[in-house]
Amino acid sequence: MLSMSDDSVMMKQVQATHAPDGREVDVAPLLHLVEDILNRATLQVSFVFISVRKKAGQAHAEMEEKNHQISYSIVLDALSYVIDRISCEIAYKALGGADAHGTTMTILETLTSFQWDAKLVMTLAAFALHYGEFWLLAQIYSSNQLAKSMAILKQLPTILEHSGPLKPRFDALNKLIKAILEVTRSMVKFKELPPSYISQDVPALSAAMAHVPAAVYWTVRAIVACANQITLLTTMGHEYALTTTESWELSTLEHKLTNIHEHMRKELATCHQHIDEKRSLEEYKMLVDMFEMIHIDNMKVLKSLIYSKDDMQPLVDGSTKRRVSIEVLRRKNVLLLISDLNISNDELAILEQIYNESRLHATRLDSQYEVVWVPLVDPSIQWTDAMQTKFDSLQSTMPWYTVHHPSLIRKAVVKFVREQWHFRNKPILVVLDPQGKVVSPNAIHMMWIWGSNAFPFTSRREEDLWNTESWKLELLVDGIDPMILNWIKEGKYIFLYGGDDVEWVRKFTNSARAVASAARIPLEMVYVGKSSKREAIRRVLATITVEKLSYFWQDLTMIWFFWTRLESMLFSKIQLGKIDDHDPMMQEIKKLLSYDKEGGWAVLSNGSNIISNGHGNTVLTTLIEYDLWKEHIPVKGFDLSFDEHHKKIHGVTYPCCRFEFPNTAGRIPESMRCPECHRTMEKYTTFLCCHDVGNPHESSLF
């Protein structure tokens, strides 16, 4: 048998029986009916279990019959004659002692005008007639007189009395029938593949189709072997013994069909992957086109992003934690908070604060907006219990609307968000107006910088807000610490400084305090940390606390927010396409962000007016060399004297400027000009591993 599977002569004979006349037969309903028969037609030794199973089976059958009756009728009207003929052919050949190969070829010749999948399902249906009748009588003959009389004719009572010795035979039959069903299901699934998305040119489909004749032959051959066993058992009784050859044939066929099914399963999976990719690409193009159209409201756009059937509630209300319809967002300004499951507690805390403040202070209807969390998870990653727990934890803390589950976000939507909106795992806030038009591809920078004052969060509003800003200390600390705003009102000198070098911090603060005392100026100092390395910041904070070096923010979230706002200022300009527009304010922000990568730094202001923004070494040197420039103070004033001496030192040392953009940053500029010398900076690809004690995965903002 195994050698025959590779017999090209035999396969040519099988191919010669195949002459389809072009008719298409939907055999799926017939296969469903056959599966139901074969699943129920199994050996049951316990008649109590049979009774219970029968009642449940009848209820199930009634429901299935109601759902599929029309489909059954259409198929059987066209095929019942041929199925009966094959059934009789199988029984006759078995009684006549015909060889299985000859019977198989006769069946294939009878079905010459049908497609391969139809041949298989019709042969299986013919077998199910006899096999189903056998087990139907076995299950009901004890309670039905007509069934009892028929069962006696077929010697069923005697057979069932010896069910113990016969069990191995029926176990072998059941295994083979299971393998037959698996191959048949796969064959029908191949037939059901949509031709608009896959063709014979696809290697997986062409490879599978090349093996179809052999798969059909061996499956029909296995059906014939099963039918022979049942026919001989009912005609010769329980004394009919299974020969060694027959036993070997059943097990060999089961093994062969299992291998065939495994091959078909793999090819089918590859075909489905191909189809999914083509459908996703088609859906992706539809999404691109949809966002270029004009709509009367935002429903079509939102439903295309968040999988939504008419009877489905895809959102969870953050205030009530109940599922709601997407209709709650109709004709509203919608902010899509898009992130993965690694959104930080710092980000959520600040966003929630801004969101709650906007709800408290909103007095006009046009200042209202709704936030929706859209969790994006890589579709290729297996969803785990740990991921579910993390998702549930995040969702439970959010006061705004959330998507019920990440699975509602389809693969094409993930591709669209990544490619069109430049999502790279860092949270973004896409703003849709009441008509579903994108008015800002990422308003999270606006949200960090200006909070709800940035409403309606459009790119035009972003530009207008920048036009009102200037290089003042309020730009750096607004919305973070009212203490500093009070110092500004009082006209005090203020040093904002940062870094993770404890010795530099000690020298800087002591020197600054000494200069302030000598110059008789009111000075306050605020330590604002770094954009990364939290554990190093904690060590510096501990030293500042013990030695009372300066004022500092005890809440690390405030430090995180300070640097996030600075980062957002840079990315806001990048998004507006104005990163190198010779804006002096932007150049100073870029300097500050660059100094953060090169050690310590300090910004000195007089009230709100910033005097100097420098690298830690140049500022510290300026303070240490106070005796060299103090003589200019009576004439030029402290502010100008400090600034001139700092620029003199800075011009000699000229510290390097450096920016690091992680791949998660989203919109990364193709080029940047140095804020110091204004030349185009060199671009490198860097692999960085900064181990922060206690959190080896923490990375910088840039």
TrEMBL record:
Residues in Sieve element occlusion N-terminal domain copies: 5-295
Sorted alphabetically, the Gene Ontology BP terms of this entry are: phloem development
Q: Where is the Sieve element occlusion C-terminal domain?
A: 461-691
What the entry lists under InterPro entries is as follows: SEO_C, SEO_N, SEOA
Pfam families xref list: SEO_C, SEO_N
> What is the protein's given name?
Protein SIEVE ELEMENT OCCLUSION B-like
Organism in which the protein naturally occurs: Linum tenue
